[in-house]
Amino acid sequence: MRAMVLRESGGAVRLESVPVPAVAPDGAVVRVRATGVGLTVVIMTANPGLVTSFPRIPGHEIAGEVVEVGPLVRNVKPGDRVACHFYLTCHACSYCRSGRETLCRNFGGYLGMAADGGYAEFVSVPALNLCKIPEGVSDLEAAVATDALATPVHACREEARIGPGDRVLIVGAGGGVGIHAVQVAKLCGGSVLGADVADDKLEMVKAVGGDAVIDGRRGDIAQQALAQTSGQGVDAALDFVASAETLEACIRSLAPGGRLVIVGNRPQAVFKKDPTFRVDPGLMLRKMLEIHGSRYVSLAELETTLELLRTKRLRAVVTRTFPLEEAETAHQLLRDNAVVGRAALVVS
Fold it and tell me: What's the CATH code, domain 2-132+317-346?
């Protein structure tokens, strides 16, 4: 089969011919139809230690069709259209059984990092990681839903706890995950300020329902957020950039009782800059502020996200698609901050 293969940390992916993966007794082989391409892949493949061995096939936002299942599999069958949860978890520890799979005590790493992923014509995955795609949801929509849509569903509902009338700041709002967070925050009843640093991204924020935008090129994000909320601040700030500067700005943007939700990650090993940010304990105490880390989603939340797509309450914002062999072109556009919303590979 054709696959885009990574042979060194931070290197380019290149087209190669490799064997079709075998099915595990509790696994499934999926014919890949679409794979989302986001900055997460670019960052993770360059962050030492996350790719457990080389060569490796990246790609974790996967949708396709089951072609083979192992003898222990009961939840899917050949012919089913499926989307894939990309955390390799045990499904048995206390966190997994309570719906907090992302904190699995026996975490096995990430699909596309600790096991071959979806930048290929076929992928072998644990069957319990698969969710069936509802009728009316395309493979392309389902692929990006597995992270770019599902992640903000969890972040907005469970961590930011956005409710009707809440003022919400989203930093990195025009990117592949942030643009969907704008939609989810609106769905929760929030009034959304979307911050970004490119005209086309700011326009897209308004196009998907953002109430106002903040141009990070025009001065301090916190000052602009306070100005646009009559000095009151925001009830929740979701940071998909997560630099020291944006995180500190989010803290300063919060109203009393506000929640900062950290969704992005800029590891120093990749970006060559320390992302550590300062917190004033006196400010935290006086305003009773909260800081949350939001790490991916549960399997149940992935199913919820697919249903929100089916009922048209959310839409997948995919502005660029590429054939499999152009994955590295997509990666470079992401490094250059030149993709509005999500990019994806369409595998024919």
Answer: 3.90.180.10
